[in-house]
Specification:
five-stranded antiparallel beta sheet, Rossmann fold, elongated, alpha+beta, 31% strand, six-stranded mixed beta sheet, OB fold (Dihydrolipoamide Acetyltransferase, E2P)
Amino acid sequence: MASIHFEDVGKVFPDGSVALEDLDLTVEDGEFMVLVGPSGSGKSTALRILAGLEDATTGVVRIGERVVNDVEPKDRDIAMVFQSYALYPHMSVGDNIGFPLRMRREEKVSIRESVAHTAGRLNIGTLLERRPRQLSGGQRQRVALGRAIVRDPQAFLMDEPLSNLDAKLRVEMRAYVAQLHQRLAKTIVYVTHDQVEAMTMGDRVAILREGRLEQVDVPQALYDRPASLFVAAFVGSPAMNLLLGRLVAADGAGMVLELGSARLTLSAELLRASPELLSRAGDEMVVGIRPEALRQAGESREVLEGEVTLVESLGSDLLAHVEIDAPAVLAGEQLDAAREILGGDVNGTPPQAARLTARLEPSVPVKTGERLRLTVEPERLHFFDPRNERALARA
């Protein structure tokens, strides 16, 4: 096994486009690290640089203690699993798995034993005589994994290996790959664009945006304490609600958050945890609210109220989409979609009314067209500076 280190790694393509900029990232020995981000974020470029399929323009890449910038891919002692499986169609499953060992000119008996052992670990021992065209997508992916595992490398690199599978099989294979990592106890660097896949599989998750590392942490910390507006919008399904509000000084040492016509009193506990809020009286803030932090209001006067525009019943819970009079804030993929629709810069367009998504109990009586009153605990609010898009730190 080996740790992996990106040290100030940058990549600029000949046409001048910047794919990676000052990437600093350490993957610990035996860790399952997921690189996630939208298309064009640099995640696959980082993996290809690590594999030796692309050269870094700047910076140093180390596997263990060895600098590998000028080391050939075949000499890096890593194995890569591709999105396309990359199986040889004219070879049997057994021959596909054993191909790397034949390239190393190992003995035939040793190859047969290694292939049988690897196929047994992957539950494809009965498929060794079949051709790839006779296999399902999940079976082909296991063969691709087997061809990587049989080499017994220091680390595995996986580039969106499950994206070609249907939704149900993708869920099954997520669990399978995670269990396989536990059995192999090897370093894995895994690239995906699917944040649900990233959150459920990784020991840690590195979120990239436009070639820069936005945040790296354990999945729950990314969800609970996003460091930026982009991370807040990217992590979570349904996405975090983002609104534009204003902080107003209240009587005494208190603080009130104005969201459209609603006024929410910030508790003393929240102000102690986020003392920076006290110095922001009169300032606009981007406010984040997770859907599960909203609930149907009782008699409280401090509510977010609006018309229900859509109700989605998921069985275990219910998603109510409620339009309120606070301005919406676009970030992450929502902002990218708006730019495509509106053609470039959307900063000058008038802000739209926010549509809150609330995750409620399935028994809550709510219908499209009705008015719904929602409450939120102030301690569950997230605050972001609209100028630099960074989260206000909490103690």
